[in-house]
Model the fold of this input.
Amino acid sequence: MTPDPSTERFELPIKIKPEDIDRLNHVNNTVYVRWVQDAAVAHWYHAATEEEAEKYLWVVIRHEIDYKYPAKAGDEIIAKTRVGTSTALAFERFTDIYRASDNKLLASARTLWCPVDPKSLRPVRVTDETRKRFSTMYNG
Done:
């Protein structure tokens, strides 16, 4: 049985690439945005049914990231993500980025995602079943 995504904490291990390091000798802030997106997409494909994966694509409508400590070359990173509340067309997701060696929280993100139809790329409402599995509470 697949875990309930509304309570699941999905983890994605991440390797820092040389091109992720900026002139300040730490991971550039734009890389964290990529990691947040990578974790969300990996969780979606891990937890979605085949029908859901074919029926919906997701686009980001808002990113909020709080940077706590820098990640540096050689650090092993873990992105931990979970779903939050939803409205008619916005689904909240939280992602925390940790350094694996000491479990230090490096950054926290809140992202709003909108489901879209894969053909028209227009916003679309998800089924009640999908909403129940990919949000903790509906605020519609």
Helices lie at 29-47, 50-55, 128-133.
